[in-house]
Design a protein that fits this description.
This protein is mainly beta. The protein is built from 1 helix and 11 strands. Strands 9-8-7-10-11 form a 5-stranded antiparallel beta sheet. A hairpin with a 2-residue loop joins strand 7 and strand 8. The longest helix is centred in the C-terminal third of the chain and has 12 residues. The chain is elongated and about 65 Å long. It starts with 16 loop residues before the first strand and ends with a strand.
């Protein structure tokens, strides 16, 4: 599967997406469907018609909202793939509606809102934090958005 690895080391002018051949997409991969960054849940390839090209029918879930999106693209054309980055942070403090986090390099961030968390994930973080355990928070970042995708005790 083709990836956008060239963009991960980027700086301020980093691209949110990169082009990939539609035929190289796979289930479980990522693609921009109707302008939304989605994880591909289903894909099917239609045979070429009398005067057309083979097409891929893609169904995916938005990685930030969970909403379902569909799209169709010719297999010979490019489709945009979101540049997503997963990062582990240590939970330093829970300050009202915000989580204070620190990455492995010691950089702090305090812009992650608790209100944006799913209820089960927020409950899990509160339980781990309440037990005075070190908590590792995994963030998914891309397209100018941030989402907490997991929390676990640091053992």
């Amino acid at each position: 599967m083709a990836l956008c690895n060239d963009f991960f080391g980027g700086d301020a002018d980093m691209s949110f997406t990169c082009p990939v051949k539609c035929s190289s997409l796979r289930k479980g991969g990522y693609a921009m469907l109707q302008g939304f960054p989605c994880k591909i849940m289903e894909l099917s390839k239609a045979q070429p018609g009398k005067h057309g090209h083979a097409k891929m029918h893609l169904i995916g879930l938005d990685v930030f909202t969970g909403r379902k999106h569909e799209d169709i693209c010719p297999t010979k054309e490019n489709i945009e793939v979101p540049v997503l980055k997963r990062t582990d942070y240590q939970l330093i403090n829970v300050d009202g509606d915000f989580l204070e986090l620190m990455d492995q390099a010691g950089r702090l961030r305090d812009d992650v809102r608790r209100l944006s968390l799913e209820k089960q994930l927020d409950k899990e973080i509160s339980q781990l934090w309440g037990k005075n355990q070190d908590v590792i928070i995994t963030l998914l970042e891309g397209m100018g958005q941030v989402k907490v995708i997991s929390a676990k005790a640091n053992i």
